[in-house]
Design goal:
It contains five helices and no strands. It has two domains: about 1-50, no CATH class; about 55-85, no CATH class. By secondary structure, it is an all-alpha fold. The protein starts with a helix and ends with a helix. It has helices at about 1-15, 20-30, 35-45, 55-70, 80.
């Protein structure tokens, strides 16, 4: 429970403090172009779900990215990886 509470507080802080998080991301990832980090942050906010559940399009995109990285030829069914019961 403590982990989940801490995770939720961190997620809330991340969402509500772009003026802190964007410079942190820029330094952490070593990205010189501030506009790129801004776009990365904004794109990331779209995938964050406060309920903790992924939307169907985000889950599909995650599996597709993983498939490409692992060089798998066959697609992986969502139900093989995610169980949202």
């Amino acid at each position: 429970m403590r982990f989940l509470r801490a995770w939720n507080r961190a997620l809330k802080y991340y969402r509500e403090n772009p003026e802190v998080m964007i410079p942190y991301m820029q330094k952490k990832f070593g990205i010189k172009e501030a506009g790129l980090v801004q776009r990365m942050y904004e794109d990331d906010l779209e995938t964050l779900v406060l309920s903790g559940r992924l939307t169907h399009p985000v889950a599909v995109e995650m599996l597709e990215t993983g498939r490409e990285v692992l060089k798998l030829k066959e697609p992986v069914p969502l139900e093989r990886v995610f169980d949202f019961l």
